[in-house]
Write a structure and sequence with these properties.
There is one protein chain. The strands form three sheets. Strands 3, 4, 5, 6, 7 and 8 form a six-stranded mixed beta sheet that branches. The longest helix is centred in the middle third of the chain and has 18 residues. This protein is of the alpha+beta class. It folds into two domains: about 120 residues, Nuclear Transport Factor 2, Chain: A (Roll), CATH 3.10.450; about 180 residues, no CATH class.
């Protein structure tokens, strides 16, 4: 059995260790360094395994009909109709490259539904050559992140966060469209949005104070009263209350802790430790974000039913 057949067998079995051994350490695959290719492929295998798929049930030959017309390849297909279409390029007895085919014709008729695709951001690819603008943008992001890191292990008021946001807003606008294509943008974008969310504590405090004052007058055991209150203040942007978490006795200390949004994937995110936020004068906003979320999700089903009637 030659190297190509060993690779096909290992891929069919989702054996990432054997695939790692077969591929050349100093080579690139799908225009990505080998270690990045292996890690990304392993992530895809793990995703499939979490769906109850431990191997590819079928390996079906075929040919490319687009970029490398006539080039032979293989469809690796699971019982759930997930599939990879791969071209395996050889130089002598070594695999020189692997290519994903987007227009692949199999020798036998098969049903394909969910193509599994490996994607690598531009700046992580072997062929990446940054433009002068990209070099400047990456350096500016490094500066912005270094300045945010300076908030660690200190108590910072909302004015400090506001100054940081204003200083780097132009940079944010110039790179936000690159969020999906360049890895160095991801963490800065996340931090910028988190800070923007934190500053809502200042922006929405007057309305939050009104909401909390009114909330104290309603009977929380009466679902209708609570739901009416939720609808009256549904436009308040503090609904999600993201970018921070409460400390013990925050009402006495007025201190919160910065955190990354949990809803965002952790890929390429920088995590900052012990960034303390002083919210003196803005307790109503913090209180509102906690109370609103608590009762919104408690009465979520009822709210959904009433949304179209209000």
């Amino acid at each position: 059995m030659n190297i190509k057949h060993h690779f096909i067998k290992a891929f069919k079995e989702m054996n990432i260790q054997v695939i790692d051994l077969i591929l050349e350490d100093n080579n690139s695959y799908l225009d990505a360094p080998k270690d990045l290719f292996i890690n990304t492929l392993n992530d895809k295998f793990e995703q499939l395994k979490r769906k109850g798929v431990s191997q590819f049930d079928k390996v079906i030959e075929g040919t490319c009909e687009k970029c490398f017309v006539g080039c032979p390849g293989y469809s690796f297909m699971t019982k759930n109709d997930d599939y990879f279409d791969l071209l395996i390029e050889m130089e002598g007895d070594k695999i020189s490259d692997i290519t994903q085919c987007t227009q692949f014709k199999n020798k036998t008729e098969v049903t394909k539904e969910k193509q599994v695709y490996l994607y690598f951001k531009k700046d992580l690819r072997t062929s990446y050559h940054p433009s002068p603008l990209e070099i400047v943008q990456q350096k500016e992001i490094e500066n912005a992140e270094a300045q945010f890191k300076a908030f660690e292990n200190s108590i910072n008021d909302l004015d400090a966060f506001e100054s940081w946001l204003e200083k780097w807003e132009a940079l944010f606008k110039s790179v936000k469209h690159m969020n999906l294509s360049h890895s160095f943008v991801r963490s800065f974008i996340s931090t910028f949005y988190n800070v923007k969310s934190i500053l809502l504590l200042k922006k929405e405090n007057t309305l939050a104070d009104l909401a909390i004052t009114e909330f104290k007058t309603i009977n929380t055991r009466n679902a209708k009263e609570v739901i009416d209150w939720l609808f009256r203040f549904k436009e308040n942007e503090l609904f999600y209350g993201s970018g921070f978490e409460l400390t013990n006795n925050w009402r006495k200390t007025s201190l919160l802790v910065y955190k990354n949004s949990e809803s965002l994937p952790n890929e390429n995110l920088k995590f900052y430790s012990n960034v303390i936020i002083d919210v003196s004068g803005f307790h109503a906003s913090v209180e509102f974000s906690q109370v609103y979320n608590k009762y919104y999700f408690r009465f979520y089903d009822e709210i959904q039913l009433l949304k179209n009637t209000r």
